Amino acid sequence: MTYTEASMDALRDKGDEPADAVVATLFARGEVGTFNTLMRYVSAAGAPLPDGLPDVARDYLRETAAPPSWVDWEEMEKARLFFIDNNVHISTALSFASMPACYVVPHVARLLSTTHGLNYPNKRMAETGQFTVHLMQPGAFEAGSRFIPAAQKVRLLHASIRHHLRREDRWDTGALGVPICQEDMIGGQMFFSLLVLDSLHRLGIHMSEEGAAAYFYAWRVVGAMLGVDQDAVPHTLEEGRRFLDLYMVRHMGPSEEGVRLTRQLIDLYEEVVPGTFFDPVVSALIRYLIGDTCADWLDVPRTAWDTVVKAAPHLLGVLETLEDRSPLGAWALDRLGHLTTVFELSSLTRGRVMHYAIPEHLKKDYGVSATVPPRHRWTPPPATVS
């Protein structure tokens, strides 16, 4: 698939029509509050929909209750095993590479600011972590799973932000395109898939080609369930590289919102890390994974740990070799990774359950100016834009 400036521009004019229509109807009828209240009790796939749910929402939930018909379930199982084998590293990449990458795209940082409560800055990370854990559970697409309801709610959350910004004339559509447009949704999909794989490679994690491709594929399935146009989305890692390179060159840069969100992210994880001695590791990891230019745009502090963190691939490489050669070592490291991920998620949620409710109002101060056995070791596709 070929991506050009013109084809990317066309994606900026497209949102998610089915979800947008549902949200517009709920607001027009004054039924958003009723929807949010009742949907707090819908957290598992296949659960009976509550009485009193608006009919337009009921129809939407029924129509989006199944994954795409083209899903390769063998590939999804490979992705699940890949996640089990690398869960703590994936969590690290999501936190310290994927989210800062979102912040380095100015209009995306401003969009994220619309739902980022200053008194609860860990909401976005908690939602992202919980969403990924739900996705990689056994039976994620079967009755009783929590992933499908989460995906349905996230899709409506995105539609509600588009609704607010356009209705209140707080978004320059002519200059910026549709809020949370198809280009940005695909860009986000690349941040959570290809950029995670890039980060794991940079950290020295051993990945098979099959595992990396399966993880990328799983996020393509996620994208489909979140309303991403499957005629435009990259289907392979090589296509993903071409899209992501062009997307970042088109949009990345500094912004006040990006700096503020990054500061919140650093403060959040410094609270999670026990004590204070290791606090600078957070900034050092972000700088190592996204590079000095992007880190400077986000005002990520330089610390004495910047040099120390560069040794991480060597240490992780030793652990990866132990895991590859010893079934017991593999089990122990996988278990440690699972426990670390659980601890991180519990710290982020602080006992809360993320419900992905439709916001009835946006922030008032918002403003926008115009494991698979290794066969072949995976390496990232080369950059396509210098």
Could you give a quick summary of the protein structure above?
The chain has helices at residues 5-11, 17-29, 32-39, 55-63, 73-103, 106-113, 123-135, 147-167, 173-176, 182-192, 194-202, 209-225, 237-251, 256-272, 280-290, 292-297, 305-309, 312-325, 327-349.
Task: Write up this protein.
By secondary structure, the protein is mainly α. The protein has one domain (5-349). Helices cover 63% and strands 0% of the residues. It is built from 19 helices and no strands. α5 packs across α14 (256-272) and α5 (73-103) packs across α15 (280-290). The protein is globular. The relative contact order is 0.18. The model is unreliable at 328-333, 335-354 and 366-374 (pLDDT under 50).
Topology:
Elements: H1 5-11, H2 17-29, H3 32-39, H4 55-63, H5 73-103, H6 106-113, H7 123-135, H8 147-167, H9 173-176, H10 182-192, H11 194-202, H12 209-225, H13 237-251, H14 256-272, H15 280-290, H16 292-297, H17 305-309, H18 312-325, H19 327-349
Helix pairs in contact: 2-8, 5-7, 5-11, 5-12, 5-14, 5-15, 5-19, 6-14, 7-8, 10-12, 10-13, 18-19
Query: What is the percent of helical residues?
Result: 55-70%
Number of helices: 19
Strand content: under 5%
Rg over CA atoms: 20 Å
Largest sheet descriptor: none
Round the mean pLDDT to the nearest integer and report it: 82
Could you say which structural class the secondary elements and strand pairing correspond to? Answer: mainly alpha
SSE succession: HHHHHHHHHHHHHHHHHHH
Extended strand count: 0
- Domain tally: 1
Outline type: globular
The termini sit apart by 20 Å
Low-confidence stretches: 328-333, 335-354, 366-374
